[in-house]
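Contributing: when you submit paired examples, paste them exactly as shown. First protein:
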Amino acid sequence: MAQQPFDDRDGTIWYDGKLVPWRDANVHLLTHAMHYASAVFEGQRAYNGQIFALSEHSERLMRSAEILGFTIPWTRDQIDQACRDTLAASGLTDAYMRPIAWRGSEQMGVAAQGSQIHLAVSCWEWGAYFGAEALAKGLRLEIAPWRRPAPYTAPTASKAAGLYMICTLSKHHATDHGYDDALMLDWRGQVAEGTGANVFFVKGGEIHTPTPDCFLDGITRRTVMQLARKRGINVIERAIWPEELESFEQCFLTGSAAEVTPVGSVGPWTFEVGDLTRQLMADYAALVRGAVSNS
């Protein structure tokens, strides 16, 4: 069955300070963000009516905007409340949420200092990002044909819309070849992340994960690292090269959408969906369904 288009749904969206009917939450064709990717966004989840790590997401949204050279004209607390209001209006208790801020249509061209800054928040029901089967068997990942750029070539510390163009291309390439997703390397050839999630590896009871020096240090990433350390598991952040993948026993992805999802293979390398991965999946699920923040 075809997915219902996102522009033709019932419900409401918080748009520049008020809740509006879903189908009326539109922007003009000549919006700067559409032509020049001058937009930043967040992905976050609500569980049992509470939005997990809400203020952390709002703060990151504001930081991302500052990195792109604009200021969101709402405070963190106001953004938090906008998210709560959107969730309440939806009638959902478990939901995926998408705050987004962007430059408007006052200027067209590369320069956009005079553009109005907009903010919107939407939410919808969304189950397991990769589906229930992936949680049981683990994902099949391809090595992406595109690489994460160096931090001196792009605003890699921001969650900016433009940085996801190569993620879409890599995801499409992977699914066209029968994979679930792709593992992206960075400009040096080191392991970076998935197309929309951070990556972890397990060897000898320890966890290894790439140093986030050219991609987002995800909120879920940090949460899972805290959960592992609470169990006495050593977590090592370091440069990881692709040729090391054959030495790892387990692999998993983390992200607000992906949550904690096991990986069964990356290219020619295979991994077990082991006890440590399953324990962290359970620990994360228990945390987000029983707490408002990850502190």
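Second protein:
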Amino acid sequence: MKFRFLGVVLFVILLAGCSEYQKILKSQDYDLWYKTAKELYSQKQYTKAATLLGELNNIYKGTDKAEEVTYLYANCLFNTHDYMMAGHYYREFVKTFPSSQLVEECQFQSAYCYYKLSPNPRLDQTDTENAINEFQLFINMFPNSPKVDEATKYIDELNNKLVYKSYLSAKLYFNLGNYMGNNYRAAVITSQNTLKKYPDTEYREELSFLILESKFIQAVNSVPEKKEDRIRDTIDEYYSFLNEFPQSKYLKKAEKIFQQSEMMLKSI
């Protein structure tokens, strides 16, 4: 009975709170909205606070309260995991209040929202690229910020995601083989371009072996007039691979490619 009574009391209090909140929403007392929104924000009731702040963001535009309202609204959206809209309002804050002491935080948060939106590597990576650009902009704007190292770490992580997507694309070309054209050549070009753009990537070994394997298969399937050049190119690629990755997990496969390439060269 005691617990049931407490439950009823809590329900009544909650109902009264909701009723009071609805009354505030229906009123036109914007100062009351402002005061209530800040109280709800301090209580971490971000969804309710966001409802009020979203309206106040338009009402107080151009006033002395606009800076705080925009900042609190962006934070509410972020804390309710609406990263797309949160990022939008963080960017709006940076543009509208460039001299604010909160610009550094908002620029970082803008980038971080894109980071949170960055999808699986197999999907479109527009948000990943936007995150990299925003983090780089943050570093350029605030080179002495204590968050520069964190921003750099996120850039490296996001770049690796882009590299992995490129590797998946190159691997797809490789798996397509000669279907509707020479996809091995596309695999080589995609891998080479990725290595030029991201020379320090953690996928360097995988991409390098994919180049070697693709060149070898092209040589095997080559027309007679191009065969010797392609075999020699494969052998050169093998030595480059061996020099860079002497302990590679692909070493046995690479050595087999080399041996078969030499045998083909001798038979020409």
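If you have annotations for the second protein, write them as plain sentences, like these:
The radius of gyration is 29 Å.
The chain has a mean pLDDT of 91.
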